[in-house]
From TrEMBL:
Protein name listed in UniProt: asparaginase
Species for this entry: Siphonobacter aquaeclarae
EC number(s) stated in the UniProt entry for this protein: 3.5.1.1
Record-annotated L-asparaginase N-terminal domain positions: 18-209
SUPFAM superfamilies in the record: Glutaminase/Asparaginase
Length: 356
């Protein structure tokens, strides 16, 4: 790991001290003429790329991970590594900014929200759609505004955003409510079921009633176990018994995020319901989330979801799949074989990830 202290305009008593964790992604790419491809830039040169940083009155330390990842290569161990870095540096810094690839940023943000229980300091993830080396890059605005948000305090000096959030293209979104919606435009993220926590224009307008309240003196509880024995099974008209059976009978499987239609509806053909019932009877937990981007699961409203209720599927309410799968890994890691406890906590909001 490389540690870089940025030479900013921070006075002796800076307005905030921020730890930036650089994990990779498009953000830090520059074009290498010799190799004729994009390669990660040397973070030591950040002030050449973004000279505006030197005008900020924050103390900024950058921690560059040994292996910079395209976020498509992120795995749960990487989420644990980031959360452990935050835990270890929690008392030393006022807030944290995680520079991350956009592709799986919503998964990392969701996982961090569960791993960092009783968080009372901002953890803001950001990245870019265009590399820092490109003339029209969005890296500069995203990074600088993420730093401003991480440093923002209210009248009493309490952080304005004491939670895990994603800042991207003028929107601050709750991390476990966000999903990547766009691969070409700059507005990469949205959060259809929860209002933005802030919008950045000429000023940054915070949507304070929707931001997690600040609770002073609560110690951070950082969790260190994730159990990845889960799967996301997306239904489609014509899905075959063979496919469903082979997924549900995967060795060691503990949890299924079932992506259903509309308000949580699924086919009622007997073979399908029978396979779900057999899995449920074997102790596999099945969480029903909708394929729709907005709205929620109303299990039992239609006949096509009433059967799911009877089999014992858990309603995922308005959870995103990203939040659902990471919450599953977190609860399986935390409670092990206590299936009842996991079932109970899947259905209730732990970090504002769902609306009951
Ligand atoms: N593939 C990149 C990543 O997720 C995409 C990006 O950062 N815009 O690492």
């Amino acid at each position: 790991m490389k540690i870089i202290e940025l030479d900013t305009a921070a006075p002796d008593f800076p307005h905030a001290s921020i730890l930036v964790i650089y994990t990779g992604g498009t953000f830090g790419m520059v074009y290498d003429r010799k190799l004729q491809t994009l390669v990660p830039f040397d973070f030591e040169q950040i002030l050449d790329r973004i000279p505006e940083l030197s005008r900020l009155r924050f103390a900024i330390t950058v921690l560059v991970l040994d292996e910079l990842l395209d976020s498509s290569n992120m795995v749960p161990d990487n989420w644990l590594e980031i959360s452990t870095i935050i835990e270890k540096n929690y008392d030393k810094y006022d807030s944290f900014v995680v520079l991350h690839g956009t592709d799986t940023m919503a998964y990392t943000a969701s996982a961090l929200s569960f791993l960092l229980e009783d968080l009372r300091k901002p953890v803001i993830l950001t990245g870019a759609q265009l590399p820092i080396g490109a003339a029209r890059t969005d890296a500069v605005e995203n990074f600088i505004t993420a730093l401003e948000i991480a440093a923002a305090c209210d009248e009493t000096g309490a952080p304005l955003v004491p939670e895990v959030a994603i800042y991207f293209h003028s929107l601050l979104l709750r991390g476990n409510r966000a999903r990547k919606q766009e691969s070409s435009q700059f507005n990469a993220f949205q959060s259809e079921n929860y209002p933005p926590l802030a919008e950045a224009g000429v000023t940054i307008e915070y949507n304070r009633p929707y931001i997690a309240p600040y609770r002073p003196n609560v110690p951070l509880k950082a969790h260190t176990t994730l159990n990845p024995h889960v799967v996301i099974l997306k239904l489609f008209p014509g899905i075959s018994p063979l496919v469903v059976e082979s997924v549900l009978k995967t060795e060691g499987l503990r949890g299924v995020v079932l992506e259903t239609f509309g308000a949580g509806n699924a086919p009622t053909v007997p073979w399908f319901l029978q396979l779900l019932k057999e899995a449920s009877d074997r102790g596999v937990l099945i969480l029903n989330v909708s394929q729709c981007i907005g709205g929620r699961v109303l299990q039992g409203r239609y006949q096509t979801s009433k059967y799911l209720d009877e089999i014992g599927l858990i309603s995922g309410a308005d959870l995103t799949s990203e939040a659902a799968v990471t919450k599953f890994m977190f609860l399986l890691g935390k409670y092990g074989t206590d299936t009842e406890k996991i079932r109970q906590e899947l259905a209730i909001p732990l970090r504002g990830e769902l609306t009951e």
